[in-house]
Amino acid sequence: MRIFVPAVALLIAACSSSETPRTAADSQAAHIAEVAAAGGVVDSILPIAEQLRRFSVGLEPTDTLRHASPSRDALVRRFLAALSKSDTASLNAMVLDRSEFAFLYYPTAAISKPPYEAPPQLLWGQIISSSNEGLPKLLARTAGESIALDGIACDAAVVSEGDNRLHNSCRVTIRLGRGAPTTERLFGTIIERGGRFKFIGYANAL
What we know:
By secondary structure, the chain is of the alpha+beta class. The protein has one domain. 39% of the residues lie in helices and 15% in strands. It is built from seven helices and seven strands; from the N terminus they run αααααααβββββββ. The strands form two sheets. Strands 2-3-6-7 form a four-stranded antiparallel sheet, with no helix packed on it. A hairpin with a 5-residue loop joins strand 4 (171-176) and strand 5 (182-184). The longest helix is centred in the middle third of the chain and has 23 residues, at 120-142. The radius of gyration is 18 Å and the shape is elongated.
């Protein structure tokens, strides 16, 4: 009989406090390990495939990113326009929904594979928590002001995971109202799939 090692134990072993995260997956795993240590509950006896099946029950399958943008720049411009109007409905439409996470992102994500094996429910909870914390900061930072985009810079290396391409560590140079340009990290990883672009979440450095 095959024995499944608890996923949280794998996360903590992969990203111990004595090591600096080397990749986006390492960084994400370290954060999830902190969540688990703070009381996150994981049914780690079950294999990842079964946890994903249970997570996906009742979700509408999808094979494409919905309400996505045709380019990275178009997505960022749309994001800034929504921020300037404090348009939370549009901002929510630009991030992965639960079905897109379950059917398009998670199955090939590095964070779902060894040595991480982050359970889908814990990873999804971390994404939602980070977005719920980050979005109010974004809205407070812009406060309905006009936003001019001067430039976008992400990691030079785009990470491929299955049919997904991930644009990490993106920073935008913007001008709020009549203010001077500032360069900031206002959102998390951008996922590209089939020539369509969305945010994975709104974790930011504000």
